Amino acid sequence: MTSAERVRRNARISQARAQGQTWASIAKAEGLSVKQAARAAREHLEAAVPAPVTNPLDLAAFIVETHLDSLRTLRRLSGSRNQPTAVAAASRAPGVALSLLDVSTRLGLAPAPPGSWLFLRDLPTIASAVLAAADRAGVPSDLVLRELGVAVEDADAAELAGPPHLNLTTNEEHD
User: Are residues 33 and 80 in the same domain?
Assistant: First the structure.
């Protein structure tokens, strides 16, 4: 067998495995032992690994794309007629999705930590409750906001519009 034929055979074996075929059926179709078929698939995958990425943006794109490719493959395999393959793919998908969320958070593509989404969603309600409690206690809202390190933007406009507009990125007052 020439090296080109070996490369094509290894690619067929790897593709068959990715489609959910068992090692036994692949080995029989290719005239190999199960161990030889697994080795051929591994050689194909090792040969397909790209050169190391040194540019951080390229690395980030590669990591995200690899996760997305994995999720696409798992989605396809979860619909497989081969029950063990479908169950395995369906059980692995949430882990890959969580890993993608973690990577996205670390890259700044999603808020960190993931629970901060809920905090940001609920922040206006929390701020209103704190300000209402301060008002009932007779404490001026601007004093409460300064103590919390939150700036009140345009106090006159805020007074006319209702609850003050909060700038959570700075603790300076705006005129």
Answer: no
Q: Are residues 107 and 127 in the same domain?
A: no
- Considering the domain architecture, whether residues 13 and 37 belong to the same structural domain is answered as yes
Residues 37, 27: contact at Cβ < 8 Å? yes
Is residue 40 within 8 Å of residue 7, measured between CB atoms? Answer: no
Q: What's the number of domains the chain is made of? A: 3
pLDDT at 107: 78
pLDDT higher than 60, residue 169: no
Q: Number of H helices and number of E strands within the chain?
A: 8, 2
pLDDT at 151: 56
Is residue 113 a contact partner of residue 119, using CB atoms and an 8 Å limit? no
Structure tokens at 85: 């393959």
User: What is d(CA 131, CA 106) in angstroms, rounded to the nearest whole number?
Assistant: 34
Task: Tell me the pLDDT tens digit for each residue of 6-58.
Answer: 989 998 998 888 888 899 999 999 999 999 999 999 888 888 666 666 777 88
- Full DSSP string of 122-143: HHHHHHHHHHHHHHHTT--HHH
| Structural domain boundaries, residue 158 | 116-167
